[in-house]
Amino acid sequence: MSVASGVRGSVVALGDSITDGSGSTGGAHRRWTDVLASRTSYGVVNSGISGNQLLRDGTYGVSGVSRTPRDVLARSGVRTVIVLEGVNDIKAKPDATFEELRDGYLRVISLAHAQRVRVLGGTITPMGGYHGYTEAREAVRSAVNSWIRMSGAFDGVVDFDAAVRDPARPTWLRDEFARPDRLHLNDAGYSAMGQAVDLSLL
User: Fold this and answer.
1) What does DSSP say about strands 118-122 and 43-48: parallel, antiparallel, or unpaired?
2) 78 has which bridge partners?
3) How many whole angstroms separate alpha carbon 187 and alpha carbon 113?
4) How many distinct structural domains can be found in the chain?
5) Can you give the CATH number for the domain in which 81 is found?
6) For the chain, what is the radius of gyration of the CA atoms?
7) How far are the Cα atoms of 1, 39, 153 from residue 69, in angstroms, in the given order?
């Protein structure tokens, strides 16, 4: 948990390896949640698990939907959750559909709202150039991101995709933000993500 001084509530980041900080400098507090914590007086709790999926239990823990009560709503003083899950569902076997992911997000929102916790939807970052990339998977990612931005289902949106994508190749991460696998980010990429959070939404 990263905490700034004068804490007056907490923000929980529910996510996978990109929230866990895979690819950032180890032990240097360079995850996007660390960057966010440096910008706000709220406590920031990192509930990212590498390999985690929104919908399915697996080797990397129970699903994001299933662990929401424990890893989000049971946290002390939680006021807002930022959900950044879905890329592992999209590249799983079988691939998740847009409809399945939408319904998963809606379940997280329902659980959180029942506890009067705000939910911000994080758009899924690009995966162009990743070995598991396909046009079909990109179509699902694009549909999910459009829904997150436009549906009004969330209490606010954090457009991580817009913050780190290559303007010339929108399905790819910017070169200066990408790890060699073209899925995970480096310190600069995570910094851009942490700066993309509108603090007024928290």
Assistant:
1) unpaired
2) 10
3) 33
4) 1
5) 3.40.50.1110
6) 15
7) 17, 26, 19
Express each pLDDT in 94-117 by its tens digit: 999 999 999 999 999 999 999 999
- In this structure, what are the phi and psi dihedrals at residue 149, rounded to the nearest 5 degrees? -70, -35
Q: Which domain holds residue 107?
A: 2-201
Two structure tokens written together for 141:
């990612």
| Helices 98-114, 135-150: crossing angle, 10 deg rounding | 30
Q: How many CA atoms lie within 13 A of 188 on its CB side?
A: 9
Give tens-digit pLDDT for 42-81. 999 999 999 999 999 987 789 999 999 999 999 989 999 9
Q: Which two tokens stand for residue 57?
A: 């239990």
Q: How many CB atoms lie within 10 A of CB 175?
A: 10
pTM attached to this predicted model: 0.95
